[in-house]
Amino acid sequence: MTYTNLASAVVISLAVTACGSDSGDDPDPKDALIGKWSVDIPGSPGCLLAGTFNAKGVYESDTICPLDDGSYGVEAEVGNYGADGTVIDFVPTHASCVVARDHSPSSVSYGVSKTTLRLVLPSGAVVMQKFDDDPNSLGMGSVVVHYGCANADAFVRSDIVPL
After folding, report:
1. How far apart (Å, rounded) are the C-alpha atoms in residues 24 and 107?
2. Of 86, 92, 93, nearest in space to 106 by CA
3. Which of 36, 61, 64, 133 has the fewest CB atoms within 10 Å, i.e. the most exposed one?
4. 161: helix, strand or coil
5. 112, β-bridge pairs
6. 0.85 cut: is pTM over it?
7. Closest Cα to residue 63, out of 3, 119, 15?
8. Rounded CA separation 27/3 (Å)
9. CA angle, corner 112, sides to 106 and 118, nearest 5?
10. How many CB atoms neighbour CB 43 within 10 A?
């Protein structure tokens, strides 16, 4: 398994329950983001970026790649987010790869529809697809996952810890 360009990959993810507006006010821009999203990582066969936004303003960003033993390695970042309809602000609070990655607060432009999320990153645009809670919707089925950090051609297991 080659972890090419994973350090520059960005994802967003967490399990969620949508909250609609209970008044006649304009809907919260975060509502359109709520859900689970994924995209294959070009040049890294079997790897994907997966993410979730929840209604409480929490995100998880995961880079997921197959390991030689048949399990999957997951680099995870968890934090808080805010959205105004055109920009998402990320403030990381926890991660599985603390030392080797930059977890500074960041902002990205975005566009969202019912089934796609387009993020405009410094390296270019990424279009993620919405998926449901069924792991088979990602083509992974039931798998063993390990949190950790990809370094060169190795994956080092580690817990998700506070930043």
Report:
1. 29
2. 92
3. 133
4. strand
5. 117
6. no
7. 3
8. 39
9. 60
10. 9
Q: Cα–Cα distance between 161 and 151 in angstroms, integer?
A: 18
- Reported as half-sphere exposure (CB side, CA atoms, 13 A), residue 77 has a value of 24
Burial label, 69 (beta-carbon count in 10 A; 0-12, 13-18, 19+): exposed
- Residue 49, C-beta contacts closer than 8 angstroms, at least 6 positions apart: 9, 10, 11, 38, 39, 41, 61, 62, 63, 64, 126, 128
Q: Over its length of 163 residues, how does the chain's per-residue pLDDT go in tens digits? A: 334 333 333 333 332 223 333 444 667 888 999 999 999 998 999 999 999 999 999 999 999 999 999 999 999 999 999 999 999 999 999 999 998 889 999 999 999 998 999 999 888 999 999 987 655 555 556 779 999 998 877 899 999 999 9
What percent of the chain is helix, strand and coil (3-state, nearest 5)?
Answer: 5, 45, 45
